[in-house]
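Hi, here's the filled form for the chain we discussed.

Project: internal
Contact: R.S.
Residues: 545
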Amino acid sequence: MGTKTGEGYREDLQQLIFQLDTISTENYKSFLQEKSDYDALINILAMNLLTRNYSTYYHNYYMFHDTQGSGKWYMFPWDLDKAFLSYEVNMPYYHTSKFWAPDNPVMELACFTPEVMFDINTRMDYLHQNLVNNDYISPWLDSLQTVLYDSVLSDETDNISSISNWVYTLNKAKNSFNNRYLELKRQFNENLKPFRIQRVKHVYKTQDSIVFNWTKCISPDDEIVKYRFYVGKKANLENSESTLVFDDLNDTVLILNDLSRGKYYYKVVAYTSNQNAEAYDNYNIFFVDNTEPKVMISEINYNSKLTEDSGDWIELYNNDTDSIDISDWVFSDNNDLNVFKFPKGTIMNPKSYLILKNNSDKFYSIFPTCNCCFSNFDFKLNNEGELLRLYNDIGRLVDSLFYLPDEPWPIEADGGGSSLELISPNLDNSLAINWKASINNGSPCLATQTAINTLLEDKNSKIKVFPNPITDICYISYFSKIDTNYNIIISDVLGNIVFQEQHNSSSSGFFTKVWYADSAKSGMYLVSLIENGSITSTVRLALIR
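And the returned structure, exactly as it came back:
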């Protein structure tokens, strides 16, 4: 992977994050050995501890995937402004996420995996003995002091109060590396051992009982360890009057009942008479919400044709039989600062649409009769593709997708005069195969309904094939009934099968299969739907090169 976060292909990074979120400590070392250059990773983790590099501990680092060589992941530091003397030598070797800072799962998982910590400790011993010690670093700092002395003396724009203060700081640095090493060894032997909270489900009902569990925290001194549990609606749990605190807990389980609707944060702190430790991960959320809104993004226009520019806009669809109050809901793209908040009193009727646009003049110049338009958002959708998100009033993610201008997403929407249209609201809108390019500039307030009607009104066929004719990719949609075995077969005029895919249905709804016809020859093909062993529908398909 040669791109930075947020640009281009990133499925491998998403997979790595998911694996780190779900891996057990028993399998963590073998996982790192398989997925990363293990020795290089252990080296940088040990160096971060010795140099007190707090930035790279929790977020300032790159993960590089060598897809063209070893296939391994590598960690690279981003900056070192929080290293060396930025923190005192007693900075803890282990600290999990805060409400103001993310966590580093690579390091934190290592801290409570004894086999990995043994390797970090061993590498730390070697680095201290040979490189990261006062005797080795002092001559290097002395030489820098000689080179920089006159510049520091004459520079009046820096933050150095006096030359004597600068010399004092350098001398302090020269004598800090041995102390840091000894402090780390002390912490390894005397500090409370890291422990882990088990994440709860994402969503609960107001009447549900919520069971919180965490692993046992061990005191090296065999002191009695107790726990303090925090839960509340503010991220800064310890400084919120609304936080519920359960103290003096002896067990590693807590059950809560009848929480009101909202977004909740929670954490666990273990403590003895003289020290404490926070559980990994410290920044957890869950929602209490009895609603299951079916509002979705059903059309996207992110790069208009230059001669027919309607601006950037999205269409929302309420795929429910009830009205939904979307007051205080939020639409955002990949940038958390780009936010549109729906005002109070915004209601979406059943099976209705709503358009959000970023330029009313451009939009109405192309769609002068659109009757479901709502308001403007003040940011631009990315022509290179990006994440779109829809949150309800308590911050729960209702819908999200990541579109791209490249295949398998319809490329006609990238400046070719089309929008992206979801084929059916019963399909997963996060999958590219469930989208098509609009015929013209888009069909705001009509696109999804048109797709539904196209599928339902054709009484002579249970399947729909689109586009037709095709040049490379064919989408086959059909309505599935519960407990039915389906088989999609595509054959040429001589009866040779070129595509076949089975589907055992356990739920009803619209489904879409895709045929990549790259290796097929031009000509006429038959697309057949077989239900429980019998052909129930056949459509002719033309392939043109």
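Let me know if anything looks off before we file it.
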